[in-house]
């Protein structure tokens, strides 16, 4: 494998990671939007933070992360972090409450609190975003140094 071939292969990795972030966002939204709609109709599908249901906040935040990943420009990094921070903090709070024996999160068909999944996915998406961003910076720096 020549250096040019390796370089072209490495150039594709951040793009693949970016599209995995978009896929994660779409997958999560496909699960949380029905919960948000149920909450809109019944008023009791997800916990409420002040006057705002947590599922609405989480839906907006995952959409923000998906949009930032889809557009993928440095000025939109703030949008990804603005989405990831509340998602991770809310999921961490919900997970903590669940582990302390105070059920607060909607549950999956298997009975697992959805905040467990949201915490894992939120952290995974943040890690992928950071790796892709750093890799893109490294590729740009090495491309300019040639």
Uncertain spans = none
Number of strands: 2
Silhouette: elongated
Helix-strand sequence: HEEHHH
Binned, the helix content reads over 70%
C-alpha end-to-end distance: 19 Å
Described by strand count, sense and barrel closure, the largest sheet is:
2 strands, antiparallel
* Whole-number mean pLDDT: 88
> Gyration radius, to the nearest Å?
18 Å
Order of strands, widest sheet: 1-2
Oligomer: single chain
Number of domains: 1
Strand content is under 5%
Number of helices: 4
Fold and architecture overview:
With 146 residues, the protein is an all-alpha fold. The chain contains four helices and two strands. It has one domain (19-133).
Keywords summarizing the entry:
single chain; 146 residues; mainly alpha; two-stranded antiparallel sheet; 77% helix; 3% strand
Quick overview:
This protein has 146 residues and is mainly alpha-helical. Helices cover 77% and strands 3% of the residues.
How are the SSEs placed, and which strands pair?
Blueprint: H1 3-42, E1 48-49, E2 52-53, H2 54-71, H3 77-99, H4 114-145
Antiparallel strand pairs: 1-2
Helix pairs in contact: 1-2, 1-4, 2-3, 3-4
């Amino acid at each position: 494998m020549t250096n040019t071939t390796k370089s072209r292969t490495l150039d594709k990795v951040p793009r693949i990671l970016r599209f995995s972030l978009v896929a994660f966002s779409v997958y999560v939204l496909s699960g949380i939007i029905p919960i948000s709609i149920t909450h809109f109709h019944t008023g009791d599908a997800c916990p409420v933070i002040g006057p705002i249901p947590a599922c609405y906040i989480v839906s907006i935040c995952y959409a923000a992360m998906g949009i930032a990943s889809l557009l993928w420009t440095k000025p939109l990094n703030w949008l990804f972090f603005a989405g990831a921070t509340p998602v991770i903090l809310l999921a961490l709070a919900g997970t903590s409450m669940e582990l302390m024996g105070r059920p607060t999160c909607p549950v999956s068909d298997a009975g697992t609190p959805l905040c467990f999944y949201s915490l894992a996915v939120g952290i995974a998406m943040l890690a992928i975003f950071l790796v892709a961003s750093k890799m893109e910076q490294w590729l740009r720096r090495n491309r300019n140094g040639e």
